[in-house]
Specification:
InterPro entries: DUF454. Pfam families: DUF454 (PF04304). The chain crosses the membrane at residues 12-38, 74-91, 97-114. This is Inner membrane protein. Keywords: Membrane, Transmembrane, Transmembrane helix. It is a single chain. By secondary structure, this protein is mainly alpha-helical. It has two domains: 2-65, no CATH class; 70-114. It contains six helices and no strands. The protein has helices at 2-21, 28-41, 43-50, 56-65, 70-91, 96-114. α2 (28-41) packs antiparallel against α3 and α5 packs antiparallel against α6. The protein is globular and about 50 Å long. The chain starts with a helix and ends in an 11-residue tail after the last helix. The relative contact order is 0.11. The mean pLDDT is 92.
């Protein structure tokens, strides 16, 4: 089981790296899943990802405070809206698909938008 979770962790790291180069694909959500996989399979890889100079800060902010940066929120909500529009126009053959899809996306969008946009200011700063 450890090997399977480790392999999943690397797969999500790879998907996150694709997101670095493709603006339509997120990076941090995949890395959050990767760090979870590594926490259950390899403490060394978990530490590497958590302390990485580029990827570590957003992962730590999410882990400690549930932070989703404003830019990430905007991209997520716009992406969901565009996906819903495309499905409604080109895929849906009945009204039920867009309604249920839109309802699920609305719940996700509410969750994303209500997360903090930055870590709290510490009293010592």
């Amino acid at each position: 089981m450890r090997g399977l979770v480790l392999g999943l962790g690397w797969m999500f790291v790879a998907l996150g790296l694709v997101g670095v180069f493709l603006p339509v694909m997120p990076t941090v959500p995949f890395l959050i899943v990767a760090i979870w996989c590594f926490s259950r399979s390899s403490k060394k890889l978990h530490h590497w990802l958590y302390s990485h100079p580029q990827f570590g800060p957003p992962l730590r902010d999410w882990d400690r405070y549930g932070v989703i940066p404003r830019r990430g929120k905007l991209i997520a909500v716009i992406g969901m809206a565009c996906s819903l529009a495309l499905v409604t126009i080109f895929v849906a053959t009945s009204w039920m698909v867009p309604v249920f899809m839109g309802g699920a996306m609305l719940l996700v969008a509410i969750y994303v938008v209500t997360r903090p946009s930055r870590p709290p200011i510490q009293a010592s700063e």
